[in-house]
Design brief:
284 residues, alpha/beta, seven-stranded mixed beta sheet
Length: 284
């Protein structure tokens, strides 16, 4: 039976000796490939990789789940460690100028907002070897290993936070996070879906993964689920759909939030993992 290994290089919390930061970076080793999903917010990814004895120079692809700083701020240092040309797979909107509303104040002419997009110029990252492969459609990295591409919003209860904005022509508008994507692994024991933040909704993402692959059973879900501000109703409906899809392993990180993580832990019992920096997961 094939094996999937996922190492958490960056999360909000960390095991002894590791660096934690608000962000996420996951190294996925499967199907003969080594794929890095996101790079965290700063130096933690390269520091923790070195601590774990992982050679970033041997990764095959770098995938960006979306264009927020906490998933892209480590890009420069990661590319320096890769030390060669490498495909950076993302959605075209990953380069959109992204902002966050500060509190409840009105947003006018750049006041009341904070920039939260990629903190580097594209030209600098390209000079370090980052070859941006920007696609709205899924990208097949290998046999049974693909990105989700743009994720349709189909559920009635999963919504993008209204404090997340994008600047268009000097005007701040709600960010639809069209660039939000995930990694999908089609295995003989079911789907394994690796999320960055799940801004478009964890269930929307999983439904899309099932449609793309034609496989009904979702075996494992790993990563950020963006349930930090989820209502009790959303949590109940999310858990029910995860059960219906056959999810056996749930390893949440980053933007899940302690309250939502505790709820999911009660539902999934031994199948639940509170993922953190330094964790090394093996499936099945």
């Amino acid at each position: 039976m094939e094996t999937i290994r996922i190492t958490t290089l960056v999360d909000n919390s960390a095991g002894p000796g590791f660096l934690a930061e608000w962000g996420l970076s996951l190294l996925v080793e499967a199907k003969g490939l080594r794929v890095l999903l996101d790079c965290g917010a700063g130096l933690a990814a390269v520091y923790n990789a070195q601590l774990l004895g992982l050679d970033l120079g041997s990764i095959d692809y770098l995938v960006l789940s979306h264009g927020h700083y906490d998933h892209t701020g480590g890009l420069r240092e990661v590319l320096r460690r890769v030390g060669r040309e490498i495909a950076v797979v993302a959605h075209p909107e990953v380069w959109a100028p992204k902002y966050s509303r500060l509190g409840q104040q009105a947003v006018e002419a750049g006041e009341g907002v904070k920039y939260i997009g990629i903190p580097f110029a594209r030209a600098e990252l390209e000079s370090l070897g980052g070859g941006f492969m920007l696609r709205r459609e899924p990208v097949h990295l290998g046999e049974g290993f693909l990105t989700s591409g743009e994720i349709p919003s189909v559920t009635s209860y999963e919504r993008i936070d209204d404090y997340l904005l994008v600047r268009e022509g000097g005007v701040f508008l709600p960010d639809p996070l069209a660039d939000d994507l995930a990694l999908i692994l089609d295995t003989d024991f079911g789907l394994v879906v690796v999320l960055g933040c799940g801004h478009r909704g964890m269930i929307n993402t999983l439904r899309h993964a099932r449609t793309l692959t034609g496989r009904e059973r979702v075996y494992a879900v790993i990563g950020g689920t963006h349930l930090l501000h989820a209502s009790p109703e959303r949590l109940d409906r999310t858990a029910a759909e995860l059960r219906q899809m056959g999810v056996q392993k749930l390893a949440v990180s980053h933007c899940t939030g302690f309250r939502s993580a505790a709820y999911l832990a009660r539902v999934f019992g031994e199948g639940f993992t509170l993922n953190q920096t330094g964790a090394r997961l093996t499936f099945p």
